[in-house]
Amino acid sequence: MADADQTARTESQSFHFKAETKQLLNILIHSLYKDREVFLRELLSNASDALNRLRFEMVTNQDVLDPAAELAIHIRVDKDARMLMIQDTGIGMTKEEVIENLGTIAQSGARKFLEAAKDKSADLTQVIGQFGVGFYSVFMVAEWVRVTSRSYKPRAKAVSWYATGEEDYEVSPAEMNERGTKVEIQLKEDAAEFADEYRIKNIIHKHSEYIGFPIYVGEEKQPVNKQTSIWRMSKQSVTAEQYKDFYKQLTLDFEDPLLNTHIVTDAPVQMYALLYVPGKSDRGLFSLRREDGLKLYSRNILIDEYNKGLLPEHLRFVQGVVDSEDLPLNVSRETVQATGLMARLKKVITGQVMKELENLAKNDTEKYQTFWQEFGGYLKQGVATNPTEGESIYPLLRFKTNLHPETWSSLEDYVSRMKPDQKEIYFIVGDDPRSVLRSPHLDYFQKQGTEVLLLTEPMDSFMLMGLRKYKDHELKNVAQAEISEQTEDAEKQEQMAEADFSTLIERFKQVLGERVTDVRASNRLSQSVARLVDADGSLNPELQRVYKYLGKDYEIPKKIIELNPSHSILKKLLATDPNSELQTLVIEQIYESALLVEGLHPDPSSMTPRVQQIIEAALNSGKA
Ligand code: ADP
Ligand code: MG
């Protein structure tokens, strides 16, 4: 109709891209040239999302346009015209939806990406993968793009959206009788390769093989992709290669997963699940998964793209698909979480993943170490936040110790190596594995050959809030552990006379004044001159760290300084002139060194002038 045509033209409207969208387009066009083919994966994944949403809608609503149309994706190319066209029979978009979805960066991922891009030092190709950029990736290959869409709502009108990736986009009424969305792309000259059926089919095999709807290319009647729901197949019929392939297409991770497990069960709930532990904790470059969560299907219909209710927090790195016939189809995405069935699914899934991890730890130590290095922090967090269920995580924890600083030991390893009369599991907290080995708190344990867990990551202090006891053994901070009187041994240096030591203590008190709450002797130092300990009743050192990490206004409480009565430095110090400047300097330095090894020194470089004075004094006395 000529009239309709007239109105169509006059109703065409021009819109500006938001500034942030332009910025994103710019980055895409210029920095991601090598991986351009992923634009097709993005468009196919959008088509598949649209088809999934339509299928979900049709469960409860028969009043849709073209109810009998096949749920499918069609791709056509025109080599001479350098055109590529992708069409789906999915949910479609109304005019408002087109403007909302394609005109602005609705996707939170892309917005986060742009925030990261503002930081000039960030490597964009690294950050882009964490967020994904979706539809706009088409401008890596497109001179212009036209999206024509007709919503499933029977009375909605077709609409078209046109953009060149520059300043503006245009929205106008369109002629389209079928439901769904058609994306027409005029390829750039240097992107002509994508107007080739063979090339397109290869990309589909590589990135989109398991999309759950048929993808037809050209006139062919056979879909290009397998579209199998391999999680619904029997375990015997899926090869290791297929498991890996599916993972890579689900996540677009380029690396193999560390672990996969396939659950096919009828009791206590009917469920198919295919779950993976990724190789890395960072979502890879161009990852398809933008959030944590499992894909939840009911009878092969996707009802939740990122379901977070099926795994405990500490296993949120697990990727995969869950499909249960027991889930009622008409549940809304929101109420899925609320049904008791979810709790049962979660129990089975969690149990299975934990079992697999335990088996891995038992059967492949090396691979388990890789796992631990990537995901150990999640498990520690689980112990911190789940005092009740945390125990199931204990067998998976790994530690470095003073006796085995290079390898990872389990709590069970530690217990099996405990001395016959040892009751407690000892640990030390500190800032890094090397300095912690120099801590005076370790002196006694090193000398006795007693094993101590080295806890040097921030998360460790949080973990200790939940991990109080393993089997019958309490965990005990070496800084606070009660120890039996140090046994006499022949090598032991002679302690200084009590009266001399009292004099020394008085000198320390005089010099350090308010900075310490007390000065006293220690019976457990051997290599070290001094150590700092907490006064009775103050917060334990792990909790002090927790407060420090949480950035609370929390002042480290004043400490007691303990001195080693056998140490030669102190003996010599006693021999120096009590009123000399050198004695004061050395006392100050002993105190500040102790602060330093505790990781409590507020300004280590401030020690330099004093250290220079001490060096000078040493050189002078050498001359005499
Ligand atoms: P995402 O897919 O992560 O939401 P995209 O940038 O890929 O982000 O797409 C933006 C939005 O545009 C989608 O959320 C969807 O609402 C809409 N959209 C894109 N392609 C289609 C399509 N083929 N059919 C229906 N809606 C679509
Ligand atoms: Mg998308």
Count of domains: 4
**What would CATH call the architecture of the largest domain?**
2-Layer Sandwich
The computed structural class is: alpha+beta
Q: What is the helix content?
A: 25-40%
- Side by side, the strands of the main sheet go 1-6-5-4-7-3-2-8
CATH class of the largest domain, named Alpha Beta
Provide a quick synopsis of the model.
The chain is of the alpha+beta class and 624 residues long. The protein contains 20 helices and 21 strands.
Helix/strand layout:
Elements: H1 2-10, E1 13-16, H2 19-31, H3 38-60, E2 73-78, E3 83-88, H4 95-102, H5 108-118, H6 124-131, E4 142-150, E5 159-163, E6 168-173, E7 180-187, H7 197-207, E8 215-217, H8 240-251, E9 259-265, E10 271-277, E11 294-298, E12 301-307, E13 319-323, H9 333-336, H10 340-363, H11 365-385, E14 400-401, H12 411-416, E15 425-429, H13 433-437, H14 443-448, E16 452-455, H15 458-466, E17 469-470, E18 473-477, H16 498-512, E19 516-521, E20 530-534, H17 541-550, E21 559-563, H18 568-575, H19 581-597, H20 608-623
Parallel strand pairs: 2-8, 11-13, 15-16, 15-18, 19-21
Antiparallel strand pairs: 1-6, 2-3, 3-7, 4-5, 4-7, 5-6, 9-10, 10-13, 11-12, 14-16, 17-18, 20-21
Helix pairs in contact: 5-6, 10-11, 11-15, 15-17, 16-19, 19-20
Bound molecules: adenosine-5'-diphosphate and magnesium ion.
Residues 42, 45-46, 134-135 line the site of magnesium ion (MG).
